[in-house]
Amino acid sequence: MLAIGDFSRLTHLSVRTLRRYHEAGLLVPARVDAATGYRSYDPDQIPTAQVIHRLRELDVPLPDVRRVVESPDPEERAALVARHLRRLEAELDRTRAAVSSLRRLLDPEPAPLAVELRAVGEQTVAAVAAEVDAGDVPAWYAGAMAELAAVLTADGADAGPGGPAGGVYDNALFEEGRGRAVVHRPCPDPPRRGRVHPLTLPAVELAVATHVGPHDASDVTYGEVGRWLVDNALTVAGPVRETYLVGPPDTDDPAAWRTEVGWPVFRVVP
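RESULT FIELD:
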């Protein structure tokens, strides 16, 4: 048997941590002296303690650590760890996007953003639309785009993709945290299946700039377009439009994504 101090040194888990894991029922000592409460561990518990240590270094929540340690099924254990690693990777992507945005914002001489005015005619599209909370947009977007692609490419479908996908986002989504969101693909004869339905986008004049990188860092581009609108005596006249020139269906590398941000505008009359 190993004294708790020896076990601590062998596993790199502090005595305090080992006591906490015992109280939580996560790593129970092989023996506890009834009179003194002194804890002793079996050498066979070392691998389990090391697994717990690694999982906690990855910030795996204690309930998930318990499921990994207690599961007798190797595939279940692997699935639990893989699920948490995917969460870590998503958080890492968000951190990288935030760092990139900060560097761009703090650059004393940022590269100028190219903005152009573009007249866009009326367009028939296949669309998925919903009232969405701002925080739920990424998950909703992924599901809606997947459904849209599946319907348009299904066998026997009476329509097919006719250009890059796009999105339309109501002002309320930004101002109030909830609003109407639409994702769409150009389609001359849109089907009506599931959430997919025909939609006509009205003609509009847009101030357009291209955002490079992850979608969750696009606020910097939005801000630069807004500054350009003010400098050119233009004001927003409707919901924001986005066109996904390069996105998740094209590449897994967020740095390669290209999104056109288009703000409907009209000129301010002096």
